[in-house]
Amino acid sequence: MGKNEFAPPVSVDATICRGCDMCMLACSLYHKGQCNPSLGRLRVTRDSDRYRFEVNICRQCEEPDCFPACPVDGAMERNAEGIVSIIEKNCIACGACAAACPYDSIAYHEDLGLYLKCNLCEGREAGPMCAEVCPTGALSYGKVKERVG
Amino acid sequence: MAKGWMGKFLEIDLATRAVKVRDTMPYAREYVGGRGIAARLAWETIPKGVDAFDPQNRMIIFTGPLTGTIAPTSGRTVYMSVSPRVYPKPWVTHSTMGGWFGAELKYAGFDGMVISGKADSPVYLYVTDDKVEILDAKDLWGQGTRDTQAALKKRHGVEAQVLAIGPAGENLSRVAVVSHADECASGHSGFGAVFGSKNLKAVVARGTKGVEVARPAEMFAEVARTREAAWASPLDGFLDFPAVPRDTPEQAKKRPVCSQSCTLNCTIHELTRTGDRDEVIGCIGVVYTSWMEVTEYESEKLTIPPGKSFGRIDGPRVHFIVDDLGLDLWMLTVMQPFFIKCMDEGIESIRGDRLNPKDPDWFVEVFRGMAYRTGLGGLFADGLRRAMDQLQGELPAKVVEAARSLEFAFGFPAHREGRLWDPEPLPYWVFSMLMYATESRDPTIGTHSSILFLANIMMADQKVALEKYRKLSKKLWNDERSLDPSFEAVIPVAAWTRHQHILIDTLTMCDFAFPRTVGGFFTEDEWRAAPDTAERLDAGGRLLSAVTGIDYTDAQLEKIAEKTANIERAMLAEFGRDRSVDASIEPHFELPCKTDGTCLDKKLFDELMDAYYTWLGWDSKKGWPTRKKLEELGLKDVADRLGV
User: Do residue B402 and residue B440 come from a single domain?
Assistant: First the structure.
């Protein structure tokens, strides 16, 4: 089990999620230049009978299972803050990372043969785009440094 | 290539099962999307004067370049077809719907579809990643809209988005809807019956493609800028729904959304629980629970009794059943006051059926009857106006007159006309009247943010409102007086509002959020303190430019809306609409406004109409677009076919 003693950097309060899809669309737009929920690195699903939502976004585990599971050199990178990214150009789409993730937070886009994992929009000063566009604060971003320090 | 559009749409003939894939872009360049493209396609494909239920009628379903993106409130879908609801004789009209379907259709690769013909037996369409299948729906026929959606989501995956009709559409009720998600519907125009007449039970979309955005950084900046203005609803501080408790900030965040990418904290949405389900109720759903009393109207010529709200337990329950039957939820707002009026006049039963309109369970049976065409409900399956054609002579004249007033606008229910439904004072009811008189259906339903919310706010404090509105009025219409309580300067406002509601249906966006002639305020004090209440009027154009990569100016966009309006009017003309038909709504506005008692007479109506037709560039005798206007808009072919 991916060890994670700290709160995930993108914290989720699903009780105030309204299912507007802004987070998934902003994610795919930021990373792929298109609004496409199936390319989002996080997923929001609705309960069929209740107006309740589940938000699945990578918790950025302190000791991730995905990273050591990757069999290809250079297909996954872990930065100084411990954030793991998939390097698409090197990824062979074997699915080992997704299989290893105990939270089912790495998704697969079948048509494009791509595995999708959140890396907190690495390099973006203001933090992840999803939390920025969320109208209700169901997603909010806390600094990673405090977590890893 | 410009971004935002998927670049192709479907033409599907259900009779021959032929499917054609066509290029969106020639239409997109001229009409942008949504209602604009739908109007042009309707002009090109719907035969002149054809009946709503004729297989040659087309069901056009279209999205806009913003649909499926992060443009706030953009998750919308536009419908266009010959409407069976229009009274006395159908003509082409439109309908718009929120939800997630339009976006999913784009993710499946298509901007829209044009459906013609009638299938041999019940079918549904399954649109997925660049292809469409016509599949058997015999097992779904007879099911409600909610069960149909659930069954198709089970079959095609939870991400699939479904449009479905219920028994009402199958039985060709002229007030049947195409339903989607919780309370999203193509509601007023009776398009559920057009689906039914084609043996089309449902349309399913599921796709894995994306909507490309030309300038993402600009898009994010525009969304942030727009969202700031569009979180609080303009009416939060002004409109009290009695049963909706004032929100705490946390409760406020949980107001449900009815559309993808909605960033508005919408005043008229709430969440209720019915048994094991959560029921999202918005707009008309809130009316069921707590707002029916507003139907009360009293004047010398006409009295309409207040309705009776069903409360927070029965309201959502009845709401769910009506939605599941696939009926226009608005029917309660005209039928309940009508039946109460009957009882006030001493009529206790109609054709042997006892009346009990304040009882939710009694009403549920009436609604079932409407959907299945049985019993008392069966009499009302085609709306109140058509029911009166059957009951004239059986019921007292004043009851029949009341019913006709409740659906005064060519069979569409009264709404935002300052009398039977909402209390707009002068000049707001005049804007509504001018649009009602010249458009294909109740147009006010698309003009909340552009003009009608201003009326609600003015009623709170006329002095302060007018101070603020004069600046807005000067800026938009170069005349400080346009929003003053008078008939003097109303014409340009009505035309502008007409264009604004066509535009948001074209992009697509929600009229409860845009265009923001007034900002969002949680309290009346916030509004009083705000220096300029006109916010982000250019939001739609800026978002459109960011998505498509084409720089649109407001003037260009208004021209596109005007072009669409003229095509729509040309279609109406071909279906028999002219100035004399427009004038048939005039007597309704002789009734005094329920807020300020203002009204008009035939002479003033004619003067206003003369001025409005002239402003629009229409022949004021006939009420049709002139050749000059059509050619100026690049519509020479329309002028030729219309013979003007």
Answer: no
- pLDDT averaged over chain B? 94
Residue A51 to residue B278, Cβ atoms within 8 A: yes
Give per-residue pLDDT as tens, A101-143: 999 999 999 888 999 999 999 989 999 999 999 998 899 998 5
**Amino acid making up residue B304:** I
Alpha-carbon distance B271 to B404, whole Å? Answer: 34
- Residue B272, domain extent: 232-406
What CATH number corresponds to the domain at position B631? 1.10.599.10
Distance from the B260 Cα atom to the nearest Cα atom in chain A, whole angstroms: 5
Of B506, B387, B403, B405, nearest to B446 by C-alpha is: B506
pTM: 0.97
Residue contact B69–A36, C-beta within 8 A = no
CATH code where residue B350 lies:
1.10.569
Phi and psi at B397, nearest 5°, equal -55, -40
Q: Any CB–CB contact under 8 A between A49 and chain B?
A: yes
SS3 content of chain A, % helix, strand, coil (to 5): 25, 20, 55
Prediction ipTM score: 0.95
Report the distance separating Cα B574 and Cα B570, nearest Å. 6
A142–B contact, CB cutoff 8 A: no
A38 in reach of chain B (CB within 8 A): yes
Taking alpha carbons only, the member of B201, B55, B91, B183 closest to residue B136 is B201
Contact B261 A22 (CB under 8 A): yes
Task: Flag if B69 and A48 touch (Cβ within 8 Å).
Answer: no
Q: Which residues of B are less than 8 Å from A49 in CB distance? A: 276-278
CATH code that applies to domain A10-143: 3.30.70.20
Q: Any idea what the CATH number is for the domain that residue B153 is in?
A: 3.60.9.10
